[in-house]
Amino acid sequence: MGSATIFFWLQLPNVTKNYRTALTITGIVTLIATYHYIRIFNSWSEALTVASKDGGDYTVQLTGAPFNDGYRYVDWLLTVPLLLIELILVMKLPQAETVSLSWKLGLASALMVALGYPGEIQEDLSVRWFWWCLSMIPFCYVVFTLAVGLAEATSKQPSPAAASLASAARYLTVLSWCTYPFVYMVKSVGLAGPAATMYEQVGYSLADVLANAVFGVLIWAIAAEKSAVEESGKLLPN
Amino acid sequence: MGSATIFFWLQLPNVTKNYRTALTITGIVTLIATYHYIRIFNSWSEALTVASKDGGDYTVQLTGAPFNDGYRYVDWLLTVPLLLIELILVMKLPQAETVSLSWKLGLASALMVALGYPGEIQEDLSVRWFWWCLSMIPFCYVVFTLAVGLAEATSKQPSPAAASLASAARYLTVLSWCTYPFVYMVKSVGLAGPAATMYEQVGYSLADVLANAVFGVLIWAIAAEKSAVEESGKLLPN
User: Among A178, B10, B59, B94, which residue carries the largest CB count within 10 Å?
Assistant: First the structure.
């Protein structure tokens, strides 16, 4: 995540002004994720200890300190609206549409994360499902808006290469986003204890790398391709 | 806050020279806030402990170490005058007016913070109210000057988009500033103990995000819009 941030920011001079705000935000998303993954790492290390008794096998034990999954939700509360905004910005829609889409998708996605958290910290399975269902309402709205909106935007890209990248961003968005509700269900189907928490953490972490870093690389590729088209356009007579 | 700093500074090359000082200061405000929030976070962590006894529910307990709210006042003493100056600079008033307004509002707002602190660290309710009232004198002067001055400045902005952003900055200033005296009153109306401190900290933190980071984004948007107007003006014959 941290390396992705540095990559995006060092690429800023290589794209035209039109895409610098998108690329700046792309790097901020992975920076915020880097910070929270360090917090999650430290919380995980404090909650678990690995030790060998009398030279025997190493075993993992709970230390009694809580593993705080709240860091992940604070991370999402900040990064999810921002990564939707970076996607909207790189599409370079008319300004009024950019502003209205950013507000609508940004607020809906923040609501989605906020509604997921009360269920995530619950042991009671029916309460978990209740919040999962509530959170799925803004989730479906955002994913549907993206799938439709990106299909439209794809056809308006200035070159075949940009169109194929925008189409890849569309599939990656739908794929990575749909991972989260399934990982959330790991504990809702009755799995519990440290093993379930481990599967959940692995799932969320993989989905985050796809949705933040890999997705960011696509945003950069779109910005670079469109910058190249704009710059070659300047040199040609109309 | 830290992400906001990086965003503002990475945007420096994208605005004209006229707005770079404002944008630099905008990033300094959120940087100072980042530093103090790390201090506040550490002080909070040292004052409280979360533990589970014998595998039971996790409970929050006081460790006996003090939670030092002084960091917040030192933060405000530096950031509040600076954020008023960033607002004055982005309005691009005549130079004499910029200097005189910066001095007047900067000193009044520093006085406001300094007069608030003696009451904040008091348990005695009447003493809290005494300092609250004293601090409200410079507070009212600053908010009134801003509300009137920004209304005037709004009408002089070079484009409708800049005027609507300046108007948004005006409302956000009044809204975010008015949050503080109410949060201060949480403890003045007789609430006490860790819960009251928690509500107070949540309130101040939300108000700070609005007054520093969100307000800073508005300052950047004004600077970007006015830079675009200035740059397009250069290309056109008058």
Answer: B10
Q: How far is CA A228 from the centre of its chain?
A: 27
Question: Cβ contacts (< 8 Å) between A35 and chain B: which residues?
Answer: 2
What's the CA gap between A212 and A33, in Å, rounded?
A: 8
Q: Which of B27, B236, B14, B24 is nearest to A18 (CA)?
A: B14
Query: What is the set of domains in chain A, with CATH numbers?
Result: 2-230 (1.20.1070.10)
Is-contact B223 B94, C-beta < 8 A? no
Residues A189-228: pLDDT tens digits?
777 777 888 888 999 999 999 999 999 999 999 999 999 9
Task: Tell me the two tokens of residue A79.
Answer: 């990064």
Is there a contact between A31 and B6 (Cβ–Cβ < 8 Å)? yes
Q: In the numeric block, which tokens belong to residue A177? A: 């986003």
pLDDT tens digit sequence for A126-144:
899 999 999 999 999 999 9
ipTM of this complex prediction, to 2 decimal places? 0.84
Spatial separation of the C-alpha atoms in residues B196 and B186, rounded to whole Å: 7
Size of interface A-B (CB pairs under 8 A): 30
Confidence of residue B150 (pLDDT cuts 50, 70, 90): confident
Chain B hits for A27, CB-CB cut-off 8 Å, are 6
Considering only the beta carbons, identify the residue of B2, B3, B52 that sits closest to A66: B52
pLDDT at A73: 94
Cβ within 8 Å, pair A25-B7: yes
Contact check, Cβ <8 Å, B7/A17? no
Q: How far is CA A72 from CA A39, A214, B109, in A?
A: 9, 18, 37
